[in-house]
Structure formats: C-alpha cells, structure tokens
Amino acid sequence: MSTEYDYIIIGAGSGGCVIASRLSEDKNVSVCLIEAGKSDNSAFVQMPAGIAASVPYGINSWHYNTVPQKALNNRCGFVPRGKVLGGSSSTNAMVYIRGNKYDYDQWAANGNTGWDFESLLPYFIKSENNKAFVNDDLHGTKGPLHIQELNNPSDVNQCFLNACVEQGVNLSDDINGKEQSGARLSQVTQHNGERCSAAKAYLTPYLNRPNLTVLTNSHVNKINIKNKTAKGVQIERNNQVIDLLARKEVILSAGAINSPQILMLSGIGPKDHLSAHSIKVEHELDGVGANLQDHLTVVPLYKSKTSKGTFGVSPLGIASIFKECVNWFTKREGRLTSNFAESHAFIKLFKDSPAPDVQLEFVIGLVDDHSRKLHTGHGYSIHSSIMRPKSRGTITLADNNPRSAPLIDPNYLSHPDDLTVMLAGLKKTLAIMQSKAFDNIRGKMVYPLDINNDEQLIAFIRQTADTEYHPVGTCKMGQDSMAVVDTNLRVHGMSNLRVVDASIMPIIITGNTNAPVIAIAEKAADLIKRANV
Fold it and tell me: 203 CB contacts (<8 Å, ≥6 apart)?
C-alpha cells in the first residue's frame, strides 16, 4: 500500500465520495479516501427498506448518544451516523430535498459570497440524474445521483395528502422547485430498486481507477500538522498505526460530529479545551465544535384499522415481509423498495415566515423512539420537525483518545422560540391526522394527545422529541471570530486543509441534508481543482 498521495480525504460520506470521485477524474493526481466503516455491499444498505434494521440496531452506524438534554427531561438523545461507504447516505431515508432558496441566500447575506442559491443551483443540477423532471431547467438528468419517484407508494399516502389539503396545505408539483411549501410524495435517491447513496453514485463506478485508493476499516487518529500546514493523516488499520503523506491537500469530510472531533484531536480548536485534554495546540480556533444545529422532531402515532398499506408487527405483516424479501432479492421490486417516509409537507405556520417553519414526514409504520420501541399491529406516524431552530449546541472531546465518542450537546429547546414552533407544528400535525381523510383507517393513538391541551403537548415534546438526523454547523463557514472555514472551505489560518461536509453550513437548511452536502462537495471539487492547477 502506498503511503503518499496528492489528496487525502477523511470520510467516505456524502461529501467525501463526491470529492474523491471528482478529483480522481484527473489521471495525473492520486487520491486516497479513508473510511472508518466497511464496504456498502450489504443488503441492509442496498435494500431501501433495510433502514428499518440499520438505524435502530446500530448496523453500519457510529450509534452515538447526546449528553443529557435539560429541556428534554434530561434524556440522552440518539445520534445514529453512517459508518460505512456512503456514510449517512447509506443509512438515511433516501429523501431528495435541496432546502429552501432563502437558506442559501442567508448564507451569502452573512458574508459567504458565492454560496447563494443561484450560485449553488448549477451544482445541484450537475449532481442530478432526475427521472421525474426531465424537461426542467431547475433539474439535471446527466449527473451520477439517480433521483426518482417511489416505485410502489402505499395508497395510505393519499390519506395524508388529502388531509393536508383539508388543513390548508396545497399539493406541490416539486418541493425542490421554485416554491417549497406544500405536500407531495417523496422523491428518493434510488435506482433499479436499490438505494443510490453517494457511494453508489460517485464511488462504485470508479473503484477501478488506478489513481483512486479507498481504505475501509481505517480509523483516523489525527491530521499531522507542521507549521500550521496539513502534512498528512495518521490512521489505524489492521491494528497498525500508519502515517499517510498528502502532497497537496487534506480534505476533512467526516461529518458534523466527527470533523470537529478530528480537528481537535489534531490540535486545532479552542485552546483551553485542547489543553485540558493534554493535546498540543497547533492552531487556536475557537469555533471548532461550536454552532451545532439540528432538526428536532416529535412523532405522534396512530394505529390503523387495517394492515393494508402499512408496515407492522402482526402475523400477516411478518408473512408479507417474507414474501416481499423474495420479491426484492429476485426482482428488486415490491414493498421493500419503500423508504417508509413516503410523503412530505413543508408548512409555514406564521404569516411572516420567510420559509417553511416545519417539515412533516409521513411514515407508513409506527416509528417510536427511532423504531427501537415496537408495537404490535399496524399504523402510521408523522415526524413534525422544526426547520430553523435558534438553539445552538456543541461538539467537544470526552478525552484525547481517538476511539472515544465525542460529547454531543445539541442543547435542544434552549431558545424559547423553538418550543413555540414545535408546539405549533405538533398541533398542525394532529389537525392533519384527525382530518376526515383518515377516518376510514384511523384507529387509536398510541400515546393519546389532546390538540387543545398545550400543557400536555409540551410534556409530550419534552418526553419524546429527538433528532431528525440532520446535525450541521460545527465547522461553520464565515469570516467572524467563530468561523472555521472561509468561502473556499479552507480552514482559517491553516494551509492545505479544507472541510467539506454538513459541518460547514453556517445556518441549517430547510429540509434533509444529503442533497445539499452533495452539491456543496460538487462546488468544493471545483474550488480544489482550480487552486491546484
């Protein structure tokens, strides 16, 4: 194995796979992509419905937890993050959502020139192979990321969509179009009945490139730094500690949890925090690990009067799964192509909202505590998530051991406005679930809630709310004293070191994070190429 490369990329997630693929297009450069997890060739990854096992049971996941959350009755939240080729794009619900134009324009308005929506749109288009919008100047059809409508959506989705209309939410032709607000069936990153992760789209077709090395099961201990220049990476692989040299750049794409952790383990971060853990300070940068943002979600659940159209724990449901396994393994067809979160709605709750305040994900099953709590029978649930939280948290080190989990503190609901939005969103969700459109299938609530009892609803939020799996912001882009990277995604005050993942988002976007990170990485690849001509 070579130990010297032009580019070393840490993390084979949504950002890292794109960067590795694009940089290795140049036959004259060598690229090494490092991933702590294993290959993505498991059925738990490739089968869309495999998320039902991978998320709750820690398959291909870091399986983190938060520190106790004061506003959530001191509960520790669950933080599953992908630990496999493709990262969290190999363990997510495959929903393709770009976010709102307002989000990116806010980034630019805060001094991040070149990161407004119009500047990022070409990179969304470049990434897309969109089968639904083939004659649309907002979408692409020649990119590596396959995007399509659901293969076999449940009829129960129509109840949700009709209920949204009853409650004043318009149907949307394209929530990634000119107007995000509205409800529609999910568009998903799938192809031929399989998940289309960042690895499947950007990495798998090019694994035979002689200038691309992919190291799985390789844990990064630190970035090696000399005179504020990234010289390479120290990894542990097969019980051996190996130093890899980077001739041009090190690109950190380990995600919003692990990227700040790796920077701090390498001596880049808040001076006092590093010194407290006996880490030599290579470069003081106070913003590393700060500005953590996440979409907090609350999930009311209803039993269904019928098993038709939903997943559930019942003799009929179990028998159906066996049948559908045969269908998927032989034809890549059937119900196991479901992503479970089959419909979405983006809703403005207040007249002066510049963009949707909440995102509703309609799930054709009873999702309780990330599916770690199972209920007999069949049903459906809706994730009601706050889109622009004002609360800010942190990622800090537990110690100086690279194998230790970092301390994750989202600081949920620390800003009072977040609870106001969460409550309004939950009430809107219950109004939709209690609409006439659901009358024929609606059974009892798993946890009965009174839409008019704010005290009870707030108690339910505090007792059950948790992550919607979208942490961002911990190595934020900007020019202020807490910014970690500049608009070229170079770490402030360092040479040959960039960060390319969700951690660079200064403000969280309105929606899922996979598509935005892929677009960010497409843009970053161009920035890197231009800087190293």
Answer: 12, 17, 20, 21, 33, 85, 86, 214
Query: Of 3.40.50.300, 3.50.50.60, 3.40.640.10, 3.30.70.100, which CATH number belongs to 1-73+80-145+192-289+399-405+472-533?
Result: 3.50.50.60
Q: Which residues contact 118 (CB under 8 A, 6 or more apart)?
A: none
444/379 Cα distance (integer angstroms) = 9
**Dist. CA 207–CA 237, nearest whole Å:** 20
Whether 470 is catalytic: yes
Region 5-18: mean pLDDT is 98
Note the pLDDT tens digit of each residue in 242-253. 999 999 999 999
Which pair of tokens denotes residue 367? Answer: 């999702």
Rounded to whole angstroms, the Cα distance separating 491 from 484 reads 6
Contact status, residue 199 vs residue 17, Cβ threshold 8 Å: yes
Model confidence pLDDT, tens digit, residues 256-299: 999 999 999 999 999 999 999 999 999 999 999 999 999 999 99
Tokens representing 87 are 């990262």
Q: By three-state DSSP, how is residue 478 classified? A: coil
Confidence band of 72 (pLDDT split at 50, 70, 90): very high
Mean of pLDDT values over 385-393:
98
**AA letter at 83:** K
Q: Rounded CA gap, 433 and 439, in Å?
A: 9
Dihedrals φ, ψ of 345, to 5°?
-145, 135
Q: Name the strand (E) or helix (H) holding 375.
A: none
pTM higher than 0.90: yes
- In CATH terms, 151-185+296-386+414-464 corresponds, of 3.30.560.10, 3.40.50.300, 3.30.1330.60, 3.40.50.2300, to 3.30.560.10
> Among the options 139, 283, 378, 470, which is catalytic?
470
